[in-house]
Amino acid sequence: MTGKVISTSRVLSDGGPYSQAVAAGSFIFVSGQIAWGSGKGREVLKVKGGIKEQTRKTLDNIKNILREAGASLEDIVSTVVYLKDLSDYDEMDEVYRTYFPEDYPARICSQAGGMMDGILVEIGATAYKGRK
Question: Is the pLDDT of residue 45 over 60?
Answer without folding.
Answer: no
